[in-house]
DNA sequence: TCATAGCAGGTACGTTGTGT
DNA sequence: ACACAACGTACCTGCTATGA
């Protein structure tokens, strides 16, 4: 029984109890069926170990599982569906799937991609937690030369499967976002910094789309008309936390957003091509229109 | 009465030291 | 360089005391 199995067991227990309150026997049955399905070491444990699992789940994930004596079932008391835990379980799923059997490699095709800089995640996280300045080499997309940066790291941010660190650049004296995949020779210095009182990170990025900070423009109400097919997709994968479905018909889905229309957002709209129309604001609709017109010119000969 | 928690002991596995 | 024993650690189970 490895640590990995313990994590897997925790995940299955949480999933089982999220779907319904269950007795210890029912949980054991679930663990047994998952053991057969995943082809792993036996995940079924004794009651004593299960009780310890409950304590671990509470301390690791903050999910409190209680026992209902009269109904003889365990249930989750304070389920928050925490984003971090969800992502961790997701990673575990992938790890599990890839780890099951090497011979499955014939059935798995990876997206082609370059290194994502994830090896820096734990180092930067450590620096953020302990408020240490960091230095690193940084290469911008559009420049060939590397620069040495010295920054105060505040936040790790993920966007479109890439990781970024939001930080205060000590040389340029401003907040900047750095892509981890373009960063090398990371050094965590012993220089401490004070976290700026005036910034609330959740609030800071609330109206933003992508990695561009809020100093890039004003918050606006945006109304988009998607084809119903794309609309279904958008409903399951919201563009932004402010997203609201305003109207739905068999032909179209109207979506309202409230954010700063940054460059990243513009790119997102262009990505949906003919399947979306910007209804409001007009200047954004015009900008998209111009971009498409310029693109069309490329194909006229 | 029964869930819970503490403890002792077993097993598996990784690491380290030693001999060939 | 390799094999193997000794040791340490993590994690498990079963037993049992506790207390709501």
TrEMBL record:
InterPro entries: CBASS_pafABC_assoc_protein (IPR051534), WCX_dom (IPR057727), WYL_dom (IPR026881)
Alphabetized Pfam families for the sequence: WCX (PF25583), WYL (PF13280)
Transmembrane segments: none
Residue ranges constituting the WYL domain according to the UniProt record: 119-186
Superkingdom of this protein's organism: Bacteria
UniProt cross-references to PROSITE patterns, sorted A to Z: WYL (PS52050)
Domain WCX: 221-295
Protein name: WYL domain-containing protein
